[in-house]
Design brief:
CATH superfamily: Leucine Aminopeptidase, subunit E, domain 1
Largest sheet: 6 strands, mixed
Structural class: alpha/beta
Shape: globular
CATH topology: Leucine Aminopeptidase, subunit E, domain 1
Number of helices: 5
Length: 166
């Protein structure tokens, strides 16, 4: 699929219209991807996030990108893995679907995602990759607005998990 690409790199350096933040419910910064995005964007991002009143798991909210190359940051909260019996798969799929819908609603043409929930939230990587690739492909089949979606993998293990599905 020419509109979906798996790459290895630093999400905060992507020259796209929007990057997606694997945020926590407060949207006020944290570790991993979330912390890296907040550090790279600068204090304006935190200030704007304070006015959003948090975000529920599976939902998405948008802010400006501030000092990032991307003009926008779409924040979504992935599920914490609890064994798979607490709607984790459904919630993870909603993170991607809601983020893509928000991108289209805001006229965004290019978007870059991290692998949501597969780090500190312990979602099994290969299971997540299958859900995510399926969700993004389905969305792109139905949508003609988005020009390109990137899955930006921070490390080789994550890159290979996603790459095998394309």
């Amino acid at each position: 699929m020419d509109r979906f690409e798996i790459i290895k790199g630093d999400l905060t350096l992507q020259k796209v219209d929007a990057i997606v933040n694997a945020a926590n419910n407060s949207l006020l910064g944290g570790g991993g991807v979330d912390g890296a995005i907040h550090r790279a964007a600068g204090p304006g991002l935190l200030e704007e996030c304070r006015g959003l009143n948090g975000c529920r798991t599976g939902e998405a909210k948008i802010t400006m990108g501030y000092n990032l190359p991307a003009a926008w940051v779409i924040h979504t909260v992935g599920p914490v893995w609890q064994g798979g019996d607490n709607q984790e798969e459904k919630l993870l799929a909603q993170c991607y679907k809601n983020s893509l819908e928000l991108a289209v609603k805001n006229g965004i043409k290019t978007v870059a995602f991290p692998s949501i929930s597969t780090g500190a939230y312990r979602f099994p990587l290969y299971r997540a990759a299958e859900i995510v690739v399926g969700e993004i492909k389905s969305f792109l089949e139905a949508d003609r607005i988005l020009e390109k979606v990137y899955m930006v993998c921070f490390d080789e293990t994550t890159y290979q998990a996603y790459k095998r599905l394309i």
